[in-house]
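FAQ

Q: What does a record look like?
A: Structure on top, sequence underneath. For example:
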């Protein structure tokens, strides 16, 4: 007997989730829910699923164990809470929500209903990222000095066109930082540890009509004493692969896209390249493989079946949002902010 998924949000990222789910042995996608009847029906027919526009009826579809939420970020808590109260395990796309208060409400609802909650941060399942995390945890870089995240991406004008939820405060929570750079911000705090204080500047430089930012810079002091820089943009044409640079007293490791481009540690041979590039959305948000999602959804299935925490639980997924919320507050208030 397979495990049944219900998918909410039949859009671009919903397609990635659907393909990932159906590539996992035993996973099934019996139902899809969306607001637009025609779009939802077309999506459901493509994946041989039942189509719903009524969320309560969707949640009552027979055989649904897990609901995967691929809707705009500011709807994750409401939809996730209702799914949890219906006894369904919940996966949400990043970010977990647009505010910590809403994220905490979702986490608490899932805990009260005794269901699992996962947040999509597929970069954590990259072998290159795992290698960096392991090296830092083993102390092979020595005392950490710098942790820098650079996400200089580009989004064409239609991405922020009138009527789009992208760049809105209500549904996106901001702009380039919370939507595009959040994967790399998550890796940064996962590897470097929690931030202590941040200071930031942000602006809508290429797209001044949006509520959120298309360009942001932040300085970070981590609790371990290391410093760092975060650059997040959707204003930089044509868009470049993200970079994560981790430096300590014994050397530096650089993640370029999804692969390691520099491994310079005292006493260790360089071991770079020949890896994978599966998540590059530097200029086209649709130009990503479903492989990262497949890995994370497969892990979530194992967590549900074996009663363990998923690789990125709700509380783990909250950590990147906590740092981002502090960065936004620092930029808005023009002062350093404690995380």
């Amino acid at each position: 007997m397979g495990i049944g998924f219900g998918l909410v949000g039949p859009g671009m990222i919903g397609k990635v989730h659907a393909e990932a789910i159906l590539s996992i042995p035993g996973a099934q996608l019996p139902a899809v829910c969306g607001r637009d009847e025609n779009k939802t029906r077309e999506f459901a027919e493509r994946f041989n699923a039942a189509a719903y526009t009524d969320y309560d009826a969707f949640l009552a579809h027979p055989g649904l164990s897990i609901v995967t939420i691929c809707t705009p970020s500011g709807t994750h808590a409401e939809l996730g809470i209702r799914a949890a109260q219906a006894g369904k395990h919940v996966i949400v796309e990043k970010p977990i929500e647009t505010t910590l208060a809403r994220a905490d409400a979702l986490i608490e609802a899932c805990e009260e209903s005794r269901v699992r909650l996962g947040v999509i941060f597929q970069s954590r399942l990259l072998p290159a990222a795992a290698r960096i995390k392991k090296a830092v945890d083993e102390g092979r870089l020595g005392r950490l000095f710098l942790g820098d995240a650079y996400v200089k991406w580009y989004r064409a004008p239609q991405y922020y066109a009138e009527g789009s939820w992208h760049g809105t405060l209500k549904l996106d929570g901001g702009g380039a930082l919370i939507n595009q750079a959040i994967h790399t911000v998550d890796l940064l705090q996962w590897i470097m540890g929690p931030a202590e204080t941040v200071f930031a500047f942000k602006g809508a430089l290429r797209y001044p009509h949006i509520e959120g930012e298309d360009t942001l810079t932040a300085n970070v002091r981590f609790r371990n004493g290391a410093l760092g820089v975060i650059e997040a943009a959707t204003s930089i044409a044509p868009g470049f692969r993200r970079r994560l640079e981790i430096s300590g007293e014994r050397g530096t490791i650089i993640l370029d896209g999804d692969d390691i481009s520099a491994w310079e540690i005292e006493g260790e041979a360089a071991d770079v390249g020949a890896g994978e590039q599966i998540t590059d959305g530097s200029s086209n948000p649709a130009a990503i493989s479903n492989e990262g999602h497949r890995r994370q959804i497969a892990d979530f299935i194992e967590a549900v079946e074996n009663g363990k925490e998923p690789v990125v639980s709700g509380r783990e997924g909250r950590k990147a949002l906590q740092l981002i919320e502090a960065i936004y507050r620092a930029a808005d208030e023009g002062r350093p902010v404690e995380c």
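Q: Is there anything notable about this one?
A: The domain at 126-288+319-338 is CATH 3.30.360.10 (Dihydrodipicolinate Reductase; domain 2).
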